[in-house]
Amino acid sequence: MKRTLSILLAVIMLLSLLTACGGKADPNIGVYKLSGAMGYSLEEFAGMMGITEEEAADMIQMELKDKGVLALTFDGETETGTWSADGETLTIEDAGESITGTIKDGVITIEIEGESMTLTKVE
């Protein structure tokens, strides 16, 4: 009985040590979907495109993964790249191009050639 209890106690102590070793997850990591474009809400943008809001949101998705890995999906085609955040400044590098935007409170805002788009984190 004492041996079993000692082994059980040792396992519990080991598990508590392992849980303390995990780093704090980056709050920016996650999947973001289109929520607005060119100054229009998602509803307005979808209406102009003649598609549903769900279809519009799925047109552009961005997944910020651990260790700066990026998966960018545009109209069903996925490419990989890298991302980094410095405060609220988000830098995305894909296919040799670098794009800078902002990331704050689960919302990414990117402006390219005077046109902006927003992507909102999917919970």
Set down the secondary structure blueprint.
Layout: H1 2-21, E1 30-37, E2 40-41, H2 42-49, H3 53-59, E3 60-64, E4 69-74, E5 77-86, E6 89-94, E7 97-104, E8 107-112, E9 115-121
Antiparallel strand pairs: 1-2, 1-3, 1-9, 3-4, 4-5, 5-6, 6-7, 7-8, 8-9
Structural notes for this entry:
This protein has one domain (28-121): Lipocalin (Beta Barrel). It is globular and about 45 Å long. It is built from three helices and nine strands, in the order αββααβββββββ. An eight-stranded antiparallel barrel has the order 1-3-4-5-6-7-8-9. 28% of the residues lie in helices and 47% in strands. The N and C termini lie far apart (47 Å). With 123 residues, the chain is of the alpha+beta class.
Short description:
This protein is of the alpha+beta class. It contains 3 helices and 9 strands, in the order αββααβββββββ. It has a single domain (28-121), classed as Lipocalin.
Distance between the termini: 47 Å
Tell me, briefly, the overall form.
globular
CATH topology assignment: Lipocalin
Average pLDDT for all residues: 82
- Helix count equals 3
Helical content band: 25-40%
What CATH architecture do you see?
Answer: Beta Barrel
Rg, nearest Å: 21 Å
* CATH secondary-structure class: Mainly Beta
Percentage beta strand: over 45%
Protein traits:
single chain, about 120 residues, alpha+beta, Lipocalin, 3 helices, about 30% helix
